[in-house]
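Contributing new records

If you add data, match the layout below exactly. Sequence lines come first and carry their own label; structure lines follow with theirs. Keep one chain per record. Anything else will be rejected by the validation script.
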Amino acid sequence: MPRPLWAGAISFGLVTIPVKVVSATEDHDVHFHRVHLADMGRVRTRKVCELDDQVVSQDEIGKGYEITKDQTVPVTDEELEQMPLPTAKAIEIAAFTDADSIDPVRISDSYYLAADGQVAAKPYALLRKALERSSKVAVAKFAWHGRERLGLLRVRAGVIVLHSMKWPDEVRSPESLAPREVEVGEDEIAQALQLADRMTIEDLSGFRDEYRQALEGIIAAKAEGKPLPAPAEDGKQKQGEVVDLMAALNASVAAAKESRGEDGEDATVHEMRPSKKTARKAPAKKTASSKSAAAKKTTGRSPTAAKKTTKKTAAKKRSAS
């Protein structure tokens, strides 16, 4: 487990729970350096003061807030740490709510809260069991990185998780982005629900970052002087191409059934009208029709006519011999 990022306490009424904050996620992205293409030398970022054009070291750099173009007020880390906030070193639980009432758009980074010392074990377990049995989440406030934040506490695999959240006024309204009203048929909705049902899974652990794997393959090939892997065929729909919605849904349901080893014959619920070209009868059908008509003529003779024909055929054979 990585080193703690922050240490403080959960304030739960009169209960105080010392905790350490550890990041719940890790970065597996492939990171590049900026290099000089002529000789592959690293290109560094130099921090230069715009007034005297001098390179400034890290210990000479601080925070400042620009009040006007000509006036900037310096603010030190010590001043930020001594701000009169009750949440300066505490995660203060303010309320409890149903998990479904939280808009996922507001959830940001996630952190594990570890009990800090044996004295914190019992109150930590108390809060964890209260969250589990109530099926609720706790809404908390805490100060971190120079600002007060809103947080969400829930339980994951026996550990209390802290999710930092956006304040209500930090979430933009999506109303202007909604598409215009269009008519959607009940058959289309039913087929979309059937597709969603066919694609439903319980375990998401099988997902892999295919982009990162492909990128690592390119890097390995270049390092070994081998040809680059061939690009994958793009089977996606071309942008701007108009398709029949029901035909696309039918094909998607059939593909989903086939991927699960199910029979996809009953996937189509919408009969498409054939074009004029495909509406013509095939030559094979004409041949089959003529054969069936001839068979009907033969089988349609009476028994007496059939006997006369047989006698005439036998007489011809005797005269020929």
